[in-house]
Design brief:
Blueprint lengths: L2 H5 L18 H19 L1 H7 L6 H16 L8 H8 L8 H32 L14 H13 L21 H12 L5 H17 L1 H14 L5 H10 L10 E5 L10 H20 L7 E2 L3 E2 L11 E4 L6 E4 L5 E6 L2 E6 L1 E2 L2 E2 L2 H13 L19 H14 L1 H8 L4 E4 L11 H13 L12 E5 L5 E6 L5 H19 L19 E2 L6 H19 L1 E8 L4 H6 L4 H17 L5 E6 L8 E5 L3 H10 L6 H23 L5 H13 L5 H6 L6 E5 L21 E3 L7 E7 L5 E8 L7 H16 L48
Parallel strand pairs: 6-10, 10-11, 15-17, 17-19
Antiparallel strand pairs: 1-12, 1-18, 2-3, 4-5, 6-7, 7-13, 8-9, 11-12, 14-20, 15-16, 19-20
GO cellular component, one term: axon
Catalytic activity: (R)-carnitine + hexadecanoyl-CoA = O-hexadecanoyl-(R)-carnitine + CoA
GO biological process, one term: regulation of postsynaptic membrane neurotransmitter receptor levels
Length: about 800
């Protein structure tokens, strides 16, 4: 999501850190360290492997096999063909007098070896099956005999009840694409946005790269792909995120919104209590692996590695490089209210506190009359400062405020009790949504702890939101958690008739602990400077959120098109109308089909999309001609998306080649040219992954309205969108107020116009009015008064029946 901000501006600092082994070749040294980190992660996941790594069997299956062997021995049969007797001979001689015990031990060891061999064989077979990607290339709704056979085998080898990490050992590694194919795809992607002479120059650089440097760089990547778990993901995390020295605010965080039209309770403490309880229930399910692994299109498992660091994680600043600190467990949250920090326990000796008890603790914080100490109120602005500066100040805080800093950084997550209301209002719906988005993304610059994996923001009127740091995982992971949280706190936990959490308070609970910072004078100036910079960054962001309610996913399905490709092509039309030119477009796609995969870029500005946009702006083109070009653009986008999903994208391969060239201190004009380009349009779809948690037919307003992120370029846009049910789409747009070339509201209007124009090309959408194609005048079509028929419910809403709790 927000990754485009980091990806386009990174400058790798390639100083080595921490190895005990010194290799003359810096690339080999880095590859060695990557593999070492991979193996350490595998060892640290031993317990997960013990619970679920024996897919499709279970640990109890060994006991079944051992019992079967014992039964065979009782019937005087030898299923081991003499191997158990050889094992007996290898046992210590001192056990000779325990003949029966030796027999049992030999049978147990033989059963263990046979069981391990069977599990290993099943893993290898499943991994080979999961390398098949032919199903991705088939037309929507069609399935070949080969794919049907493959699907049946995957289901057989996957077992009946896979746990969250069950597939990890069976996932294939991300392939290294052919460097010739990558360069060819790159040149094709930049052709629409370059002048002829610029493209010819770029093509010459590409040919020289293929002749001189490509083969050597590619050799190193293939070596890494065999040694490390993923040839690109650890470098992506390190160089794009952790080595970036830019402030996290706007650049490396994104936000997720609450329900758009309803607020289950107006009581701030009650909403906080239920939300925190739901989040900790999710953490408990995560620990027990009770979360089902995500299956793409219901059949292909995705990597679950990113779930490991949702909770108890902090991005710790360093002078040259940050690092992620992850704890196995944490039994408290850090809370910020009116500039005061609190350590609030979440567990009692009997287990997790009830929602009502958590509400009581939050209410105690809200009722605490003590003022913030000097500069404590703005202390969190340090986490919005450039990383090197914050790292230096943090060293001072570790000395003078050790306990307070540790309480914040070791918390399960951060909670900000915002003293102001937020969310949709009837008085000024458009402005209120924009302010809501801005508050979640940037706030005031000093009211979020941006280092934490995520901050739960609870506003004074009960509205919720998340601010998420990006380095530890990508949006689908936090989105999955957020969907569970909203559904659980609203439908399963619920609220009493007076808006409080259900249950009873616990007066015996100790008061939340107020954290004391004892800031020295030299920190005061750093806080003031950090606050000034954070307010500058926050004040420069122009956010615009609007629900588009003329049509949604159901209409696009009736057109027999991919909903994502439909929107992406319409965005090209909207952006062209906004800026009068085409630009490189960044769309995030996931590579979690592979072990420890993260993301890939879909370059959505294609020649086919440009041809369609040109036709739409040409009044002489007929609707039939435009529709044919639109379908061609959608098909091209689908092909690019499928290539990205299957590990055959462009940008991650070029990124890894660039890192190798920098490690070798090899100058590559072609790769330097690639990373001098700017993404003026950065886009992302926020997937709704657990529709079974929401009854969109009976409760259509109870769906998260998605989230957004900052622009990737000073003169660019950040656009995200989410399909709210079947008949609405919510867009989140951001840009910088300092730019004279962008305007988030202006682009929002162009997006509405473009969607109506595209829909009118189809018979099912001809009732939708649009402006005359190619004209320069004002839009004469019907405008969607997107909130005219909605009301803002600040009371406890009706929820599904208690007899149907969410699982």
């Amino acid at each position: 999501m927000a990754e485009a901000c980091q990806a386009v501006g990174f400058v790798p600092s390639l100083t080595s850190s921490g190895p005990d082994v010194e290799l003359k070749d810096p690339v080999l040294q880095d590859i060695y360290l990557s593999g070492l980190r991979s193996w350490k992660r595998h060892l640290s996941r031993f317990w997960n492997d013990l619970l679920s790594g024996v897919l499709p069997a279970s640990p109890l299956s060994w006991l079944f096999l051992f019992s079967a062997i014992q039964l065979a021995c009782f019937l005087q049969l030898d299923p081991s063909l003499g191997l158990m007797e050889k094992i007996k001979e290898l046992l210590p001689a001192c056990w000779g007098q325990y003949h029966r015990l030796r027999g049992l031990l030999a049978a147990a060891l033989f059963a263990l070896c046979l069981w391990g061999a069977l599990i290993f064989t099943l893993h290898v077979a499943l991994r080979l099956l999961l390398t098949y990607h032919g199903w991705l290339l088939e037309p929507h709704g069609a399935m070949s005999s080969a794919t049907k056979t493959w699907l049946a085998l995957v289901r057989i080898f996957s077992g009946r009840h896979p746990m969250l990490f069950s597939y990890q050992r069976a996932l294939p590694r991300q392939p290294v694409p052919s460097v010739q194919d990558t360069v060819c795809k790159y040149l094709e992607s930049v052709r629409p946005v370059l002048l002829d002479e610029d493209f010819d120059w770029t093509a010459r650089l590409a040919q020289e790269f293929l002749k001189l440097e490509a083969s050597l760089l590619q050799w190193y990547l293939r070596l890494k792909s065999w040694w490390a778990a993923n040839y690109v993901s650890d470098w992506w995390e390190e160089f794009v995120y952790l080595r970036s020295r830019s402030p996290l605010i706007v650049n490396s965080n994104y936000y997720l919104m609450d329900f758009l039209y309803v607020t289950p309770t107006p009581l701030q403490a009650a909403r906080a209590g239920n939300a925190v309880h739901a989040l900790l229930l999710y953490r408990r399910r995560l620990k027990r692996q009770q979360i089902s692994p995500t299956l793409l299109m219901g059949m292909r498992p995705l990597c679950s590695a990113q779930y490991e660091r949702i909770f108890n994680t902090t991005r710790v600043p360093g002078v040259h490089k940050d690092h992620l600190r992850h704890l196995h467990d944490s039994r408290h949250v850090a809370v910020l209210h009116r500039g005061r920090f609190f350590r609030m326990g979440t567990h009692s000796p009997d287990g997790l506190l009830s929602p009502r008890a958590l509400e009581q603790q939050f209410q105690r914080i809200l009722d605490d009359p003590s003022p913030a100490c000097p500069h404590e109120e703005h202390l969190a602005a340090l986490t919005a400062a450039p990383r090197g500066s914050w790292a230096q100040v943090r060293q001072t805080l570790k000395t003078c405020a050790t306990h307070a800093l540790e309480a914040v950084e070791s918390a399960a997550f951060f909670v900000s009790l915002d003293p102001e209301p937020a969310g949709l209002t009837q008085e000024d719906p458009a402005a209120s949504l924009d302010a809501y988005a801005h508050s979640l993304l940037a706030g005031c610059g000093h009211d979020r702890w941006f280092d934490k994996s995520f901050t739960l923001i609870v506003f004074s009127n009960g509205k919720l939101g998340l601010s998420v740091e990006h380095s530890w995982a990508d949006c689908p992971i936090s989105g999955h958690m957020w969907e569970f949280t909203l559904a659980t706190e609203c439908f399963q936990l619920g609220y009493s008739s007076d808006g409080h959490c259900k249950g009873h308070p616990d007066p015996a609970l100790p008061q939340p602990q107020r954290l004391q910072w004892n800031l020295p004078d030299q920190v005061h100036q750093s806080v003031s400077l950090a606050l000034l910079g954070a307010k500058t960054l926050s004040g420069n962001i122009d956010c615009h959120v609007f629900p588009f309610c003329h049509f949604g996913k159901s209409f696009i399905k009736r057109c027999h098109l991919s909903s994502d490709s439909f929107i992406q092509t319409a965005l090209q039309l909207a952006h062209f109308r906004d800026r009068g030119q085409f630009c490189l477009t960044y769309e995030s796609a996931m590579t979690r089909l592979f072990l420890e995969g993260r993301t890939e870029t879909v370059r959505s500005c294609t020649r086919e999309a440009c041809d369609f946009v040109s036709a739409m702006e040409d009044p002489e083109k007929t609707d039939t001609q435009c529709l044919a070009l639109f379908r061609a653009a959608v098909d091209k986008h689908q092909a690019l998306l499928k290539a990205a999903l299957s590990g055959q994208g462009v940008d991650r391969h070029l990124f890894a080649l660039y890192i190798v060239s920098r490690l070798l201190r090899m100058q590559s004009p072609f790769l330097d040219q690639v990373y001098s380009e700017q993404w003026q349009l950065s886009t992302s779809q926020i997937p709704v992954q657990q529709m079974h948690l929401f009854d969109v037919h009976n409760y259509p307003d109870y769906v998260s309205s998605g989230g957004g992120f900052g622009p990737a370029d000073d003169h660019g846009y950040g656009v995200s969108y989410v399909f709210m049910g079947d008949d609405a789409i919510t867009f989140h747009i951001s840009s910088k107020k300092s730019s004279t070339k962008t305007d988030s509201h202006r682009l929002g209007q162009h997006i509405k116009d473009a969607l109506l124009d595209v829909a009118s090309l189809f018979r099912a959408g001809q009732h939708l009015q649009r402006r005359f194609r190619g004209s320069k005048g004002e839009d004469s079509g019907r405008r969607c008064e997107f909130l005219s028929s909605k009301t803002v419910d600040s009371k406890t809403p009706k929820t599904p029946t208690d007899s149907e709790p969410i699982q």
